[in-house]
Model the fold of this input.
Amino acid sequence: MPELRTRRRLDQPRLGRRRLDVDPEEFARLSERAARFLGTGRYLAIQTVLVVVWIALNLFAVSLRWDPYPFILLNLAFSTQAAYAAPLILLAQNRQDDRDRISLDEDRRRAERTKADTEYLARELAALRLAVGEVATRDYLRGELEKLAERIGAERADGSGRAADRVERGAGRGRGVNRPAGD
Done:
């Protein structure tokens, strides 16, 4: 079977077709800029001036009439503008919705993390309160020391001799810090 040239073979795609390579992200950014401009007062002022000049020239400048009274060409220009403006504005709104959705998802995740951190800190704080409740506080120790001081003062007042005897007897037994108990 004779070999067919590559251009005539139906089982292989043609090479050499050139396609318009448009970056969708770049096109979307461009459409957002256009949509932002279409929504400004500057655009409305420019369009109003152009329409007034268009109508004035077509009504009063008889030699320049390119669009007589029903202004069909002006109507066509407005229709074309609307046909392009509406999709551009919708594309810009869709991109803004996507950005808002991503932002809301990030906010939701951040709120969940904050809530989890807050709950963790609340549990830790409760555990610390329980632990501090079991620890002797300064006020508790101060109260106990005052009770002991009062008891010692009362014993001294009751029988100052008995307390002194006990102290002397304890020291006289030879049970000091450095001496063994058997001496």
About this structure: The chain has two domains: 22-134, 140-171. The two ends are 125 Å apart (CA to CA). Residues 22-134 form one domain. Confidence is low (pLDDT under 50) at residues 171-179.
